[in-house]
Amino acid sequence: MYLESLIDKLYEGKQFFEVVKEIPKFGTLYNEAMASTSKSLMRGLLASYPHIFDGINSLVDVGGGTGAAVRIIAEAYPRLKCTVFDLPHVAQNAMKTDSIDVVGGDMFQKIPPADAIFLKNVLHDWADEDCIRILKRCKEAIKSSKNDGKVIVVDIILDFENDDPKVTETSLLLDISMMCLHGSQERNKQEWHDIILGAGYSGYKIYPVQLGVYSVIELSP
């Protein structure tokens, strides 16, 4: 029933996240699914790339949902002050603790300041021009005066080197899914390069795929 309602509203020309907001029970299911995905993905990220969080004192998880990813980061780095940032109706379901703050807002307008901005499964939801706007807001939010200020992106790179045909197949299926539901897409290396530099970043690093279909991109302001 929820899926039928979702499809009907999408055919009316509404954006996916507008529909999720209008159908609260579907929104709850969507947030639970994202939280479940975050748990295994974040454990793999921390095991493979712990150095990414070195030297930072604060981090904002943009589009952080109910805070599943941030809770895992905070457990691994107790001294790191983390913030869950999402739309108000989503952020209200995240739990605030001594080490985790929760802020509701619009990432297209302003993002809370931090040493590092974290974007997991966010940019593939949006068209190129929207991604550039989001990345510009992230760049503005980096408050570190040292060279360790950064934006950390966890997302799919379609043509990144791997020897597993299942990874390639899954990435392409997700690309089709994104085009159908969000009107967006997964991106190849050149497309990521274009939006990162288009947002005014000085450079970036891509780390080898060790997280299934996902890659980590570290952006330098």
From TrEMBL:
Q: Which UniProt keywords apply?
A: Methyltransferase, S-adenosyl-L-methionine, Transferase
A GO molecular-function descriptor: S-adenosylmethionine-dependent methyltransferase activity
Fetch the Pfam families from UniProt: Methyltransf_2
Protein's UniProt keywords contain Calcium: no
- Domain of life, per lineage: Eukaryota
Entry-linked PROSITE patterns? SAM_OMT_II (PS51683)
Give all residue intervals belonging to the O-methyltransferase C-terminal domain: 13-202
Q: Which InterPro entries match?
A: COMT-like, COMT_C, SAM-dependent_MTases_sf
Q: Which GO terms of type biological process are on file?
A: methylation
Q: What is this protein called?
A: O-methyltransferase
